[in-house]
Amino acid sequence: MKVKYCLSQTAKAFLLLVSAVTALQPAIANITITVSNENSEVGFSGEHAGMQFSGIFEQWTANLTLPPAKAPQITAMFQLESAKTGDFTYDSTLPEGDWFDVENHPEGKFISDSITVIDGGYKVSGLLTLKNISNPQTFVLYEQKDGFSANFAIDRIDYNIGVESDPDAEWVSREIMMRMQLAKAN
Amino acid sequence: MNKHRYHSLSISLHWLIAMGLVFMFVSGLYMVNAEIPKAEQYKLFQIHKASGVVMLWAILLRLLVRIFTQKPPLPNVISKEEAKRAKLGHVLLYTGLAIMPLSGWVMVSASPFGLPTLVFVDWLNWPHIPGIQRNKLVEGIANNIHMYTAILLSCLIVGHIAAVYWHKRTHNINLVKRMWWFNNDN
How many structural domains compose chain B? Predict the structure, then answer.
């Protein structure tokens, strides 16, 4: 009787520990932040005819599951049609076939394949897909008090953007800067 | 109506188109050949395109007025042979005038750039000709037609002005009065 009692005491303690750990686990694993054009901003900028232009995507959404989560991942979907610069000429040209070709490729996406913690934030690598062309991109997602930010450049020629009009970047810069300012709170 | 001169509307259009042509020739040559900053070149292209649309309307209206009104008879001193050549010259002038804006419109519509043509700043977004978008072959042909017609048209205009001068010297007649609103009742 006495031995049995002792064993069940140990078992109880063990079970308590196990349940405590398993209870904590999902709390770490499932922190996913959803951001979108509602509370955050994804923009782009470049140069045309020696003049700076910049714009934002007015329709996009992204999910961020960051380390120390078990399977950290960032996914983002954005409507290319929603790219707006405020300049009528640019805004009516961007959706056209040689540029974003929104008729055939309405959506762009980013899916990360690795996220590592670095000083001040995260190093993110993944595939950015535009016009059905996927290229690896790496950027640093800086952690701030109430959000995240990132800046990185993409080469429009890698995505067949404006290759017929201006392959030598005589008019439009090859390098297009991407700018993100993401809110932490949902 | 004064039968010694063209219709008032024809006269107004003749001189407006003459001034417009000077601007189109100068801006066209300058934007293609001059070593100017890209931003200036780009803006000049847009101005040239918008002005081209206005020229197209003016030239079409001119042709309509010419078709639906009576042209003044040529002075008796002009021989039948000369009259025939004058007729040919004028047909060529009208044809050249019509080809210039039309070939320009084809170029703009076929260009892979797909830039819109905004007339009077942004009052009117002049449409592209459908079915030829991103067609470099059509763009190239239209480009050549635009250039060679410009050369031929400028030769025709020099001949047009020289003929007025030649008739003044040879027959002592002032043909300009046929294309002026007043002092033409001789």
Answer: 1
Whether A96 and B133 lie within 8 Å, measured CB to CB: yes
Query: Within an 8 Å CB–CB cutoff, is residue B147 touching chain A?
Result: no
Judge whether B122 lies within some domain: yes
Q: What does the CA dihedral A88, A92, A94, A95 come to, rounded to 10 degrees?
A: 150
- Expressed as residue numbers, the domain containing B19 is 8-176
Q: ipTM of the predicted structure?
A: 0.79
The model carries a pTM of 0.83
What is the nearest CA distance from B133 to chain A, expressed in angstroms?
9
Q: Which of B37, B39, B113 sits opposite A165 (nearest CB)?
A: B113
Residue B182 lies in a domain: no
DSSP state letter for B76: T
DSSP assignment of B123-184: TEEEPPPTT-TT-HHHHHHHHHHHHHHHHHHHHHHHHHHHHHHHHHHHH---GGGGGSSSS-
- Residue B2 located in a structural domain: no
DSSP of A62-103? EEEE-TTSSS-EEEEEEEGGGEE-S-HHHHHHTTSTTTT-TT
**B127: cis peptide before it, omega within 30°?**
no
Whether residue B163 lies inside any domain: the answer is yes
Which chain B residues touch A99 with a CB distance below 8 Å?
A: 114
Question: Contacts of residue B113 in chain A, CB cutoff 8 Å?
Answer: 93, 98, 165-166
Show pLDDT as tens, one digit a residue, over chain A (186 residues).
455 555 566 666 665 555 555 555 544 556 889 999 999 999 999 999 999 999 999 999 999 999 999 899 999 999 999 999 999 999 999 999 999 999 999 999 999 999 999 999 999 999 999 999 999 999 999 999 989 999 999 999 999 999 999 999 999 999 999 999 999 865
B-chain residues within 8 Å CB-CB of A89? 46, 115-116, 118
For the stretch A2-20, pLDDT in tens is 555 555 666 666 655 555 5
